[in-house]
Amino acid sequence: MLLASRRRLRAEVLIVLGLSLGQSAVYSVVQLLDKMTRAPLSEATSTLNRSQSTREYFDLTYQLLDIIFALVPVVLVFYFLSSHSQGGREGASGSGFARLGFNFARPGKDLLQGLGLAAAIGIPSLGLYAAGRALGITTAIVPSGLEAYWWTVPVLILSAVRHAIVEEVIVVGYLLDRFGKFGWSTPLAIVVSAALRGSYHLYQGFGPFIGNFAMGLVFAWLYTKTKRVMPLVIAHALLDIVAFVGFSLFGKAIGLG
Fold first, then answer.
1. What is the CA radius of gyration of the chain?
2. d(Cα 122, Cα 116) in Å, to the nearest integer?
């Protein structure tokens, strides 16, 4: 029975990753190889938040649809984590949100932890980006390729929140929960989670892989101590908002993503 349960969970994890960040990791590796075989990485550019139409309101529609559908795997994760989906065996509360600490049970503490994490991660990330560019292992990163419309900043904020929710809920909360049920040790689970985070940033070069791997180690370790993804979501969202909106308003690529 235990073996059958683990097989089911492995299939579940593969489905979730195939619909979300596992798919992104595969595309990221292919994109990296494509860039490396065209020219040195230092000459390549990675553009985030690309415009999808030259027509303003169609572009807005595409951006919003991307954000909405990117969150569907997160909904699937919360369904899988709910006690209802497991016949009541997943926990007394029956809530995947409470299980991962993705709620407003302690807003003040979560906000303070998120702000602290954003500051601790953000400044070193800028240095790592500069070092990667100097060493030729990081592409030029353009956090926003959107035209300047009235809706650009709100959409970039929504995009940042989307990335934060998808990555922290799936790569940290969900995977660490499932890896534990596989019988993996905590250090192994943390390293694999961090490696996945780094891998879907490889299209930006090896520097962002290293930076996001390190960020993943810190975030996953902190989650094992607090059992809450909300501070991680807040920190990640703040980092991306500064990068996306800052570039859109001031035109300076600062390389966070």
1. 18
2. 10
Integer Cα distance of 137 and 42 in angstroms: 6
Cα separation of 10 and 12, whole Å? 5
Residue 111 lies in domain: 2-82+105-250
Contact by Cβ (8 Å): 232, 168: yes
Residue 20 lies in a domain: yes
Give the count of domains, the chain: 1
Over residues 72-106, the pLDDT tens digits come to 999 999 999 986 555 555 444 568 999 999 999 99
Exposed, middle or buried, 2 (CB in 10 Å: 0-12/13-18/19+)?
Answer: exposed
9 is a domain residue: yes
Position 202 in a domain: yes
Mean pLDDT throughout 207-229?
97
